[in-house]
Amino acid sequence: MERIKITFAYDGTYFSGYQVQLEKRTVQLVIEKALAKMHGEEVRIYSSGRTDAGVHAYGQVIHFNSPLSLDRNAWHRALETLLPNDIQIQRVEKVDDNFHARKSAKGKTYRYIVLNDHEYDLFQRLYEWHVKKPLNVEKIQEAAQLLVGRHDFTAFSASKSNVKGDKTRTIYSLDVWQEGKRVIFQVRGDGFLTHMVRIIVGTLVEIGLGKRNSSCIKDGLETFNRQVVGMTAPGHGLCLWEVNY
After folding, report:
1. How far from chain centre, in Å, is Cα 187?
2. Whole-prediction pTM value?
3. Which of 2, 14, 190, 192 has its CA 20 to 30 A from that of 51?
4. Domains 2-95 and 107-244 alike in fold
């Protein structure tokens, strides 16, 4: 029995998120079905974390145990043949039995793209959030630094989140920069709560639009009140960029 680690990308547009759901197309379901065809039996996969419906991934990671004796290239070819074209295998590795895609992760990086222009981009509309009104990027950059560090991010998590216990997380960096008409948000941390990155981006965009004052971030971190911070940004602008081990 060997433990296999796979790094892969997916276009989340036509997936109802990562995790298996009844009668819905999800990333986990599609991959487990492919592996079942290879093995002749069910194979359970374990991921670095879940993504919501519409959210994309450039560097998602899973692991599973397999009795098959295949080299990395054979795994790569077999999975590419069985998987749909909105999932792309990037790297296959054989790892130690102690490796766990989620528990071994040291941190994750997410990217979010906002198109700040009066017209949307037809060919990128599924991968970026279109915000028409001008954004004050300097204000966003200043406010973003208030979130860096170790905090209780209860206010920046989904109200109906099923996460129990401590909601303290560490954000190592939160960088915001402009590329032409696009504003890129990149957040790196040790872990993220349900909708956390999307709420952070939604809050920062509202600050950039002048709808909120940056003081709402401090209020949210101190009061743990979801209502004092901003909206949840749409899922399709978000991408799981990298998982660090």
Report:
1. 10
2. 0.95
3. 2
4. yes
Active-site residues, by number, are 52
Q: Are 112 and 236 in contact (CB under 8 A)?
A: no
Other Cβ atoms less than 10 A from the Cβ of 29: the count is: 16
Query: Average model confidence (pLDDT) for the chain?
Result: 96
CA distance 94 to 242: 19
Displacement of CA 105 from its chain's centroid (Å): 14
Task: Output DSSP code: residue 135.
Answer: P
Q: Which two tokens stand for residue 59?
A: 């560097």
* Distance of alpha carbon 236 from alpha carbon 13, whole angstroms: 7
pLDDT digits (tens, 9 = 90+) for 41-60: 999 999 999 999 999 999 99
Q: Spell out the domain ranges in the chain.
A: 2-95, 107-244
Pick the CATH number of 2-95 from 1.10.1840.10, 1.10.150.120, 3.30.70.580, 3.30.420.40: 3.30.70.580
When pLDDT is cut at 50, 70 and 90, the band that residue 64 belongs to is: very high
Q: What is the CATH number of domain 107-244?
A: 3.30.70.660
Summarised one tens digit per residue, pLDDT across range 135-144 is 999 999 999 9
Contact present, 79 and 70 (Cβ < 8 Å): no
